[in-house]
Amino acid sequence: MTNSSQIVTRIAPSPTGIMHIGTARTALFNWLYARGRGGKFLLRIEDTDRARSTPEATEAILEGMRWLGLDWDGEAVSQFARVPRHAEVAHEMLAKGHAYKCFASQDEIEAFREAARAEGRSTLYLSPWRDADPASHPDAPFVIRLRAPRDGETVIEDAVQGRVIFRNDQLDDMVLLRSDGTPTYMLAVVVDDHDMGVTHAIRGDDHLNNAARQAQIYRAMGWAEPVWAHIPLIHGEDGKKLSKRNGATGVMEYAEMGIPAAAMRNYLARLGWSHGDDELFTDAQAIEWFDLPGIGRAPARLDMKKLENVAGWHIARMSDDVLLSEIDDFLALTGRPPLSQAQHDLMAAAMYCLKDRAKSLPDLLEKGQFALASRPLQLDEKAQAALDPVSRGILHELTAQLQNVSWDRDTLEAVLTRTAEAHGTKFGKLAAPLRAALAGRSVTPSVFDMMLVIGREESLARLTEAASRDG
């Protein structure tokens, strides 16, 4: 248990094979809230569904959390490992009269509901065992049900949704412990959150109805409820519930797109939360600014264009060392060959002219292709077209003029401009064949930047190779 004044948040995903983008955003909100207040951020894996809860599925969640950079305090907790504790609480509620044994079979419950439907009554199951004399209990399997209040209201004071009222006659006596002794999700969540000292339950608003039922357990046990904060869901770009059809749903899909984790944190923080008009910010700012009143009630909408802009802003501001490390991780994640030491060194030298306009790590690699390529260069279609006989002749002449000049921007610019003028043209006309010769591409950093990065020897070798190409 934690000290009473400390903020404790948690993320409690079910292992399903991927870490959903919505789960990632919920984790981020909990992480920001705790980190901004000197609190604890805990991780619990809700792995009681043994069919789906494989080690691989659990690892997928841990991988997503690690990639996002959301560090949690202590060990990740397995909900399944706490089943005896859940059962203990159910029996404690039974002993205190807050729960009761129900011997109704599934057939009896379904028969009740069919009759209710036929008569136009509520299908909410009302167990005949709620007030039965224990002396009349059969020697048969039973579930333990919550003795929920039948009258009045259960009120949730939600930090995001405001006051939410549930009529108790619309809530049934939910099952706490199944006949095989395993707990239901509703019971397990409450017991775990209580035992872990969770002070704030920040989660998706698809759990809002669960809050009413879970609050009844808290109140029956006399436990302090957490601050409830139910955040809006994320919709796709078309405004519909996020699915494979309208956006990437798994957080690692964004890692594989080459979105830096820092950019993803920034973007996810703005999905459903705002701080004035601030769109672009650092982790330190997000931790300082994040608070529950800044969360809106309307669903947030995924916007890939905006994500790319956020990624571009972060890439431009990252240190070269961090960016190179991100590139290494990206290549490993996507199963691509790692950079050689020489490529690493050249990318480091080129970073100053690459990162200002890149929107993703693949974009950065594409812009830096001139530094990664080796001769003979593979030319794209536009680059091939730029190397016509006239251009190749000018490149041949230029190569000779560059042999012994100082290798600095001013000198290179003077030589290239003079060569263009000698042929009655402007330097801009020379740029396309030079890009083709130096990078094999039609879209590249500036010609001078490329020549300075790869150096005299390699620049001249590439110009010579381009000049001698067959038409």
From TrEMBL:
Entry annotated with the keyword Cytoplasm: yes
One Pfam family recorded for the sequence: tRNA-synt_1c
Principal subcellular localisation of the protein: cytoplasm
Keywords in alphabetical order: Aminoacyl-tRNA synthetase, ATP-binding, Cytoplasm, Ligase, Nucleotide-binding, Protein biosynthesis
Root EC class: ligase
Glutamyl/glutaminyl-tRNA synthetase class Ib catalytic domain mapped to chain residues: 6-308
Motif ('HIGH' region): 13-23
One of the GO BP terms on file: glutamyl-tRNA aminoacylation
Gene3D superfamilies in UniProt: 1.10.10.350, HUPs
Placement of sequence motif 'KMSKS' region: 241-245
Gene Ontology molecular function: ATP binding; glutamate-tRNA ligase activity; tRNA binding; zinc ion binding
Catalytic activity, reaction form: tRNA(Glu) + L-glutamate + ATP = L-glutamyl-tRNA(Glu) + AMP + diphosphate
Residues annotated as transmembrane: none
Cited PROSITE patterns: AA_TRNA_LIGASE_I
Binding site for ATP: K244
Segments forming domain Aminoacyl-tRNA synthetase class I anticodon-binding: 340-466
ATP-binding recorded as keyword: yes
CC annotations in GO: cytosol
Subcellular location: Cytoplasm
Annotated EC: 6.1.1.17
Subunit structure: Monomer.
Family recorded in the similarity comment: Belongs to the class-I aminoacyl-tRNA synthetase family. Glutamate--tRNA ligase type 1 subfamily.
Function according to Swiss-Prot or TrEMBL: Catalyzes the attachment of glutamate to tRNA(Glu) in a two-step reaction: glutamate is first activated by ATP to form Glu-AMP and then transferred to the acceptor end of tRNA(Glu).
Designated name of the protein: Glutamate--tRNA ligase
Organism: Roseicyclus marinus
